[in-house]
Recover the amino acids of this structure.
């Protein structure tokens, strides 16, 4: 076996950074391997930058528990470190009577999940807060917010490094071998090497399943399939009326094309869902037509010609069209039988909100 370290974290997205920080704070020797040349270049920087409330996710799921705990931890972390964020709140809107039952179920689920601050609004109550939003009723979530995700990632990296973590960029984890005395990782890049470790945390995002399949000794049946869902965003030009995030009743596989308010007070709309078979970040301008139709269900006054392609992200999902959304998978030795290995699969939304809680969950699985 080549060079030796105690712990290797693969992936320097927001979850990998949070895990590296958490382990470094615990006094562990940590090396972070990142295939790209910088932190957070994929899913972590291609999202809505929303601190989610936690009302959507099934009872007892990791997504529910870690979102609610992560939200509180994230607000405290940002406030204590001067990371830009704002509790802007959001409205979840039912735009037709047939959606009222679904809105009620979201409120009930939120209460079960520990989101106790939601408030039901009738149409007049909604208009009092957001005069241009058309709906039959709405849920107000005061604890939903927005965050500077890059500022968050810089803070996580800085604290990890302050406690001894080392970062290796342009250093993809190509695979490895599970042995009796640890795990040996094949590291690519300009200077390939073999790196031995006692603990391996696979936070590789889009590459998590590929790394899992490339670990000799890991049972292949423990690696779930990956399904890629592209979410496109369109920017808005002109003056807008919104002070809060506005979300429709969630359709399949996402939370819907919503009003995305940023810290500068500008808005964009997204994401939609486009099932794809590869990671590619172009936005088709032709998708604007469906955006106009969807947005006008709750903002009828959206002007013609006001939308233009912005960016997209690709969610590393575990389930596809027509299937129930999968939970996060945080797979420790009980799931695959290998001491010292934790694989994180399907960490999509609300992964950013949950990152600090996910890190605590990972730490709790390590001996």
């Amino acid at each position: 076996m080549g060079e030796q370290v105690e712990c290797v974290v693969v992936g320097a997205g927001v979850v990998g950074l949070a895990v590296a920080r958490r382990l470094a704070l615990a006094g562990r020797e940590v090396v972070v391997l990142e295939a790209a040349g910088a932190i957070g270049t994929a899913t972590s920087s291609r999202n809505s930058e929303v601190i989610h409330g936690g009302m959507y996710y099934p009872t007892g799921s990791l997504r529910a528990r870690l979102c609610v705990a992560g939200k509180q931890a994230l607000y405290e972390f940002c406030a204590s470190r001067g990371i830009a964020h704002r509790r802007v709140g959001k409205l979840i809107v039912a735009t037709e009577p047939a959606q009222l039952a679904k809105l009620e179920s979201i409120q009930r689920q939120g209460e079960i999940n520990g989101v106790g601050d939601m408030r039901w609004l009738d149409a007049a109550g909604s208009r009092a807060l957001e005069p241009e939003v058309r709906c039959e009723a709405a849920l107000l979530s005061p604890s939903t917010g927005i965050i500077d995700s890059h500022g968050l990632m810089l803070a996580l990296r800085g604290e990890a490094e302050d406690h001894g973590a080392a970062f290796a960029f342009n250093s993809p984890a190509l695979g490895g071998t599970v042995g009796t005395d640890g795990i040996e990782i094949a590291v690519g890049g300009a200077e390939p090497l073999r790196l031995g470790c006692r603990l391996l945390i696979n936070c590789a995002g889009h590459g998590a399943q590929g790394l899992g399949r490339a670990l000799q000794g890991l049972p292949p049946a423990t690696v779930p399939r990956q399904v890629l869902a592209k979410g496109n965003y369109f920017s808005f030009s002109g003056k807008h009326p919104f002070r809060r995030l506005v979300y429709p009743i969630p359709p399949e596989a996402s939370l819907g094309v919503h009003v995305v308010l940023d810290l500068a007070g500008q808005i964009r709309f997204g994401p939609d869902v486009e099932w794809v078979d590869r990671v590619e970040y172009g936005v088709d301008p032709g998708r604007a037509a469906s955006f106009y139709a969807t947005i006008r269900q709750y903002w009828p006054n959206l002007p013609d010609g006001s939308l233009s392609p912005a960016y997209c992200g690709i969610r590393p999902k575990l389930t596809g069209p027509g299937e129930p959304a999968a939970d996060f998978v945080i797979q420790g030795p009980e799931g695959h039988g290998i001491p010292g290995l934790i694989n994180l699969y399907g960490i999509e939304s609300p992964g950013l909100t949950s990152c600090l809680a996910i890190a605590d969950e990972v730490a709790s699985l390590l001996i």
